[in-house]
# Entry
Amino acid sequence: NCMAVTAEDKAVATANLSVSYMKPAAPGVYFCDSMIERAGRSLIFARATLYPVGGEPVASATAVMSVITVG
# Structure
């Protein structure tokens, strides 16, 4: 979660989001493996992969979040 690495007077906005769909996702239960790769003062870089339980990835995403001051 990008908000977990920002100060209380900060918020984040999506600067870039890229999603790769690797194969169709059948109905069922899925989980997401995500991580923040780097968190700087003005940008946060994150990635995630979506998996069905016990299966191969169906989608992955990378995101760049812009850190902004609130108030």
